Amino acid sequence: MSKRIPVTVLTGFLGAGKTTLVNRILSEQHGRRLAVIENEFGEVGVDQALVIGAEEEIFETSNGCLCCTVRGDLIRILAQLRKRRERFDAVLIETTGLADPGPVAQTFFVEEELREHYALDAIVTLVDALHLPQQLGDTPVVLEQIAFADVIVLNKIDLVSSATAARLTQQLRAINGTARIVPTEAARLPLEQVLDLGAFDLERALARDSAFLEPPRPFEWAGLYRLGAAALLRIGNDPHEHEHSEHSEHHHDQEHDHGAGTLTQVDVVLLPAPTATDGAAPEVLAATLEPLLDRAAVLFETEALRVESGTALAPQRRLRLPTTQPRELSLALTAGDWALFSEHAPEEFALSLPGATLLHQRSFGSHHHDLAIGSIGLTESRPLDAQRVNDWLSAVLQTRGQDILRMKGVLQFKAEPRRYVFHGVHMTFDGKLERTWSDAETRLSRLVFIGRNLDRGEFERGLAGCIA
Amino acid sequence: MSGAAGVSGAGRLNPLGRLELPEYPVDVAWAPDGRSLVAGLADGSILRVQLAALPASQALPPPQVLQAHTHSVLALAWQKAGRLWASSGQDGRVLLWDARLAEPRVLHEERQWSERLVFAERVNALAVSTGRTLRVFDEAGVLRYQHVGSAGAISALAWHPRAGELASAGNGGVLLHRIDVKGTTGVEATPPAPRALPLRAACVCVAFHPEGRLLAAGLQEGSVQLWNLATGSESRLDGFGARVLATEWSANGRYLAGAAGSELVLWDFSGRSGGRADPAELRLAAHSERITVIGFRPGSNWLASAGRDRRLLWWRAGAGDAPQDAHLLSDECSLLRFSRDGTQLAVGDASGGLSIFECRP
Q: Residue B121: CB partners within 8 Å, gap ≥ 6?
């Protein structure tokens, strides 16, 4: 089989900047031969590109399953395009702003003829930073477009404050825990950010971005601190203290979903960290934090220990801190480098650590939001039974297919030296054994489900039932 | 064709010659006399091939190259009367060609593709589908009928074999349009509303029974829908695992062939009344990969099929489940087109080969 032509799906609500991006791509001197399928013609068409007008057409099946739909117009157009001897380097499909990209993706799962010649490369969703907060609340299709995405282009970032941009990033991360988020102005971004990403080729996606399958975490924030001999942890909403918090910029600029004033408690975990070299680069510090994430996640699943005034904070425990009034808590920790994982962003409870230096911090997706769509990430170090996984996923697809917008994962099967990788859109599913596990990597099954009203416990129990 | 693998039986596809084309052949239309054909290519050019010298030479003469479309050809059709043929392309143009000249005139142009062209057998009319719009032009190129706003893009067209009626199929069913091109010139201000055969499914292909009483449509979801146009009754032939890309009736109307995936199915309608009872079904399992094209030889029960497995198979409906002849093509088959009298078959492959076979008996 000749190399399959990569297809990028560009989606986004009305006014998000899709046409601007398409015109930019067509205008750039990138030397690639592109075919662009769009519902409305843009103003730019250049010689090396073929711009094809399409009337979005959803083929439903009459078997009663509303989520089994394909795009009939794409079947016809792509079948015609593939006949040229001089092939296109890539195809770009621009959907209408009101479209759910599910049927586009499913078309590539379902239609054998298309799969032979085309490879769905990635779903790129543009969102309008200025209008996103409102759209998240009243425009369900925006949520779906975000949930389906492999790349989310947070466009018009120049129209909002940096704090709002940070908050939007968290919200996007909460909906879709695995997409890459690219902030941009006027849809200006390098072509390689949207084309030829291989996001539906999980092996390639993982090789390119190790965080591709990173599961959503039960904490929103992690900080790497260097503690002095008498460090304290200070929390609470004392207005006099806010300005001195290292996170105060966010605090004043931000209107969080659940507001700083409404928090009554927050869960944290403290873990010892390898000593970082003075002046280490951010990526080195990030790497220091990385191995601790799974351990922290496990501790967040344990019963929380409520901390009262006067209690020293101990490591390796899930600690529940009351936040109704300002407090200073001592740390039962030795001087050195420590990682603090927090259920909420630190500005929400005015966190500061006098006597400590913040070396590195990282935000994770907000997990306690009111949005109907979100991500669930699961990891399992024990080998799985292939038949049980098959039975479980089949049952999940049968019963929750309409609610699961995307799922993907890498699995470790018992007595199988190769990795099993899969991805799915609604009830369509594609999985296969890929390369063998290398000696250098940790054998770990990782799964991510993105969808509506997903019950984490239900998925955890299902996966637990697959352990060999 | 790189070789032939003969199978026992009286029927044969006898190779007459092969032409190496510079591009993927998208469609072929035969002149009514079978002495020439036009082949539309994926680079937008059209080749006119004279076949009068065959079969003595075993080599097809160099074709005449017609610069037709700036992007790939989509469809070709040749009028029964022989004076005109038409082409459409990805450049959005529909061209009408005088068979004696190499210069076309533009019949229609828009940015959306016109994917289907079909000349009527009984009237001099050309049906053109463009997205959800159906247009019918007369021989002078005058627009005589237009229907805008089908439920879905039109994926297939078929003229009724006797009446001035045209079926357009797509997502949501089939529309039967009454076409009167012998009336006044120009588009009718208020053409009669087409008769709708609604379906909650997408129709991929459509074919009238030779007597016009039945209509068969292949569906995206892997089944064949049948309508009895006289009684209004419907039935469904299920059991395909993939989209039904082709449905074809044999000349006597006894057999209906359907292809989906690597499955080729023949239904025998003999002794059935109006398609209400289930016809006998015979599955012909000789292709190992997806079938791309099938076609009944005009005036007969002989059926050709070809696909991704490069096999060109020659079947006689009613003569069991083994092919009567087989040939191995150079590449995936892209098209099969019989000459009007059924004596010749043009076969295109994805490598740019165009082979001509003599059909025996």
A: B80, B159, B161
State the pairing for strand pair A373-380/B244-249.
unpaired
Contact list in A for residue B352 (CB cut-off 8 A) is 85
Supply the DSSP string of B202-266, one letter for each residue. Answer: EEEEEEE-TTSSEEEEEETTS-EEEEETTT--EEEE---SS-EEEEEE-TTSSEEEEEETTEEEE
Cross-chain Cβ contact B24/A60 below 8 Å: no
Pairing of strands B280-284, B263-268: antiparallel
A60 to chain B, minimum CA–CA distance in Å?
Answer: 6
With 0.80 as the threshold, say if the pTM is over it: no
Q: What average pLDDT does this structure show over A289-295? A: 83
Q: Which of A34, A55, A66, A80 to mutate to test the interface with B (most CBs of B within 10 A)?
A: A80
Report the residue of chain B nearest A110, measured CA to CA: B242
Paired strand residues for A223: A340, A361
Instruction: Inspect the interface and report whether the beta carbons of A41 and B24 lie closer than 8 Å.
Output: no
Pairwise CA distance, residues A224 & A290, whole Å = 11
Distance from C-alpha of A225 to C-alpha of A363, rounded to nearest angstrom: 15
3-state secondary structure of B145: strand
Report the sign of the C-alpha dihedral through residues B195, B197, B198, B201, in that order: negative
A70 touches chain B (CB under 8 A): yes
B144 or A45: which carries more pLDDT confidence? B144
Interface contact B153-A70, CB threshold 8 A: no
Per DSSP, the three-state class of B103 is: coil
A365 vs A321: CA distance, rounded Å: 21
Measured CA to CA, the distance from residue B248 to residue A111 in angstroms comes to 22
Q: The tokens of B102 are what? A: 């190499």
Q: How far is B24 from chain A (nearest CA, A)?
A: 6
CA–CA separation, B181 and B176 (whole Å): 15
Q: Which of A321-325, A340-344, B205-209 has the lowest average pLDDT?
A: A321-325
Q: What per-residue confidence (pLDDT) applies to A61?
A: 56
**Phi, psi for residue B95 in degrees, rounded to 5:** -110, 140
Note whether A260 and A237 are within 8 A (CB).
yes
Q: Output the pLDDT for position A2.
A: 57
A113 touches chain B (CB under 8 A): yes
Is A50 in CB contact (< 8 Å) with chain B?
A: yes
Distance from CA of B184 to the nearest CA of A (A): 33
Query: Which residues on B lie below 8 Å from A41 (Cβ)?
Result: 111
